[in-house]
């Protein structure tokens, strides 16, 4: 079978609306399969909204460290453990697990205080100091910024 004949055969199969075709001649086999086209059907007309008309989300979590966080850490006094990266803070290893630390707990240098999730990686936040947890400045699920105060240890 010549290439031109093969092309004619392909066009004929396509025009006939066939999705499968097999042809065999003199030990040569030709199989043609056409995947049906996917059609997108809109159920209702789509209305375009100008960007300025879009309402702001009702709740936007505070992500950036504020002067209030730094002031609170300074007011309490002690050593501040800051976030080493941007991400989501978790106080426990699982939603139903007990928090790593609570205010009043005694901690050792290297002890895990919490987790910051960044790009689907869980990063343990370890205490840089021995002492007692005087304040936890972030809540479970809060977004934290780089260098944001998270714990005060005295």
From TrEMBL:
Q: From the UniProt record, list the coiled-coil ranges.
A: none
Known InterPro entries for this protein?
AcCoA_biotinCC, Biotin_BS, Biotin_Carboxyl_Carrier/Decarb, Biotin_lipoyl, Single_hybrid_motif
Could you confirm whether the keyword Lipid biosynthesis appears in this record?
A: yes
| Pfam families, sorted | Biotin_lipoyl
Q: Tell me the route in metabolism or biology where this protein functions.
A: Lipid metabolism; fatty acid biosynthesis
Q: Which domain of life is it from?
A: Bacteria
Q: Which UniProt keywords apply?
A: Biotin, Fatty acid biosynthesis, Fatty acid metabolism, Lipid biosynthesis, Lipid metabolism
GO terms for MF: acetyl-CoA carboxylase activity
Domain (Lipoyl-binding) spans 78-154
One GO cellular-component annotation of the UniProt record comes to:
acetyl-CoA carboxylase complex
A GO biological-process term: fatty acid biosynthetic process
Function per UniProt: This protein is a component of the acetyl coenzyme A carboxylase complex; first, biotin carboxylase catalyzes the carboxylation of the carrier protein and then the transcarboxylase transfers the carboxyl group to form malonyl-CoA.
Quote the protein name from its UniProt record: Biotin carboxyl carrier protein of acetyl-CoA carboxylase
What broad taxonomic lineage does this protein's source fall under?
A: Bacteria, Bacillati, Bacillota, Clostridia, Eubacteriales
């Amino acid at each position: 079978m010549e290439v031109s004949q093969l092309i004619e055969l392909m066009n004929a199969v396509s025009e006939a609306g066939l999705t499968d075709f097999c042809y065999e001649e003199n030990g040569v086999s030709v199989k043609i399969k056409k995947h049906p086209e996917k059609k997108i059907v809109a159920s209702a007309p789509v209305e375009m909204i100008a960007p300025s008309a879009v309402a702001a989300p009702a709740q936007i979590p505070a992500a950036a460290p504020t002067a209030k966080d730094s002031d609170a850490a300074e007011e309490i006094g002690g050593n501040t453990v800051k976030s080493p990266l941007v991400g989501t803070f978790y106080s426990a290893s699982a939603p139903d697990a007990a928090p790593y630390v609570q205010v009043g707990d005694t901690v050792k240098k290297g002890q895990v205080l919490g987790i910051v999730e960044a790009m689907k990686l869980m990063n343990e936040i370890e205490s840089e100091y021995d002492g007692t947890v005087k304040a936890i400045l972030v809540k479970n699920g809060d977004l934290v910024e780089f260098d944001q105060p998270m714990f005060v240890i005295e």
